[in-house]
Amino acid sequence: MVFLGIDLGTSGLRALLVDADGSPIGSVERGYKTSQLRAGWSEQHPHGWTQALTAAVQELRATYPAFSDVKGIGVSGHMHGAVLLDATAAPIRPCIMWNDTRSSDEAARLDAIPESRAISGNIIFPGFTAPKLEWVRRHEPENHARISKVLLPAGYLNWYLTGDFVSDVSDSAGTGWLDVSARRWSDTLLETGHMSIDQMPRLVEGCDAAGHLRSELLSDWGLSGPVTVAGGAGDNAAAACGIGALSEGQGFVSLGTSGVLLLARDDCNPAPDTALHTFCHAVPHRWYQMGVMLSATNSLNWLSRICGHTPAALTAALGGSLQPPGSVQFLPYLSGERTPHNDAQVRGAFIGLDTQTSLADLTRAVLEGVAFALRDSAEAMKTTGAQIEAPAVIGGGTASRYWVEMIATVLGTTVSLPKGGEFGAALGAARLAMVAATGAVPEAVMRPPEHSEIIPPQTNLVAAFDGAYDRFKTAFPAIRSAQ
Q1: Predicted local confidence at residue 74, as pLDDT
Q2: Which of 101, 361, 404, 480 fits a 20 to 30 Å CA distance from 23?
Q3: CA neighbours within 13 Å on the CB side: how many for 383?
Q4: What does residue 45 show for φ and ψ, rounded to 5 degrees?
């Protein structure tokens, strides 16, 4: 008995095969194109996703004989995308992606409706699905009139796999149409967005069965069946399942292109004014909160490009011991900011440069600025009663132990580095498939990985970094007014 986890990413699809113990057997990846016809637009055609899935399955089947024993499939996907289907289930237009910002006016209108934040638990950001549909209604009325169903990207793959229109609640929480506390579609939010319940997919929990692999695919893929298809998850909820973050306070810091602080919550505690996301988790009766800053390793990569040194060389020059905060400040808003400022227009800045400033000073300032922006999310979460308990740190930025130690000190908590291996969204999707197909208890399947290292905060530097963080907070209004 083996299980297939599918992660529909922004730039490509990853398919991971795991055994009955959840250990990886093998994985393959396939890419697809993104169209950007205008500034701020980002679209993909759903046919590219199914073609990538077909190619990935063909390679898995040819490479790993165990594939013939697949009994469960789970899909995770990039959230918020709008896949519009007509009465024949054909895509009406390309999917408008999560990082498409054309619907900023529509988002502002929806967010201003008093019920929106109260029911959805979130600011209605331009990236959400609901404002995208309002944009289509205003600018492509002929397409809007043809809509029979609206699916999210992962939901579209679920339909392709099962023939049923179904979505999990974690992914659907990012639409702007879901009552996040009650975990159901909101008639009020649908009405304000000029949509109807008939146009929505059926909702399931991520670890429940959404359906079974349809007979045509069973034949094409060489499977005997039945094969259970799980509800699946949005990408970050799936990553939480992969890292074993299910219970209150468990979570992770992701040092990727963007920076994410995610915590599992036992209750729904929305705080939309902080620009935190409060979404349903992929397991029943659980939620998660997430703060996002848009330029984490991207800030270090930017400095690397302009100075001609690799990121590894830049961080290595700082030495092996964490230093006190420097005199130069960096505000890491190269692409605007999400939590807690919700300001797409603000841009980054160095503050405190002088003739003695060195490249090492700039590097240290960049690392500190990203760490302080992550603390912004941590402070926002604390207002909801969250306790941050030894989060795992994942992503490319973990190559710098200096940076990880700084983040532990800035957040004031021990952090852990997982051992190398699988712990991402594809593994989380496979784990959801295991639960859906076998009826296993989620906590028994979605266990945290072993740690390669536990890193405590440098207690002798906590006060110094607290003071630097206070200065960092006062700098934001100054640069915003200057811009």
Answers
A1: 98
A2: 404
A3: 14
A4: -90, 130
Query: What would the two tokens of residue 276 be?
Result: 């935190």
Torsion of CA 343, 344, 348, 351, to 10 degrees: -20
pLDDT tens readout for residues 389-436: 899 999 899 999 999 999 999 999 999 999 877 788 999 999 999 999
Give mean pLDDT, residues 10-27: 95
Give me the residue spans of the domains in the chain: 2-236, 245-422+450-483
CATH fold group of domain 245-422+450-483: Nucleotidyltransferase; domain 5 (3.30.420)
Q: Is 2-236's fold the same as 245-422+450-483's? A: yes
User: Is 19 an annotated catalytic residue?
Assistant: no
Torsion, Cα 114 115 117 119, to 10 degrees, reads: 170
At 389 the pLDDT is 84
Report the alpha-carbon distance of residue 359 to residue 299 in Å, rounded: 14
Distance between CA atoms of residues 317 and 324, nearest Å? 15
E strand segments, 114-212? 149-151, 166-168, 178-179, 184-185, 202-204, 209-212
Cα 325 from Cα 323, distance rounded (Å):
6
- Asked whether the CA dihedral 369, 374, 378, 381 is positive or negative, the reply is positive
Q: Taking Cα atoms as reference points, which of 304, 264, 258 lies closest to residue 281?
A: 264
Q: How many helices (H) and strands (E) does the chain have?
A: 17, 24
Share of the chain above pLDDT 90, in %: 89
Q: What is the CATH number of domain 2-236?
A: 3.30.420.40
Q: Which of 5, 60, 51 is nearest to 28 (CA)?
A: 60
Residues 413/390, Cβ–Cβ less than 8 Å: yes
Q: Which of 7, 171, 208, 235 is catalytic?
A: 235
Q: Contact 426/309 with Cβ under 8 angstroms?
A: no
Res. 457: pLDDT tops 80: yes
Radius of gyration of the chain (CA): 22
At 10, list the tokens: 């922004």
What letters, b where the CB count within 10 A reaches 16 and e where it falls short, cover 261-271?
A: bbbbbeebbbb
Which residues 6+ apart lie within 8 Å of 121 measured at CB?
Answer: 173, 180, 181, 268, 270, 272, 278, 279
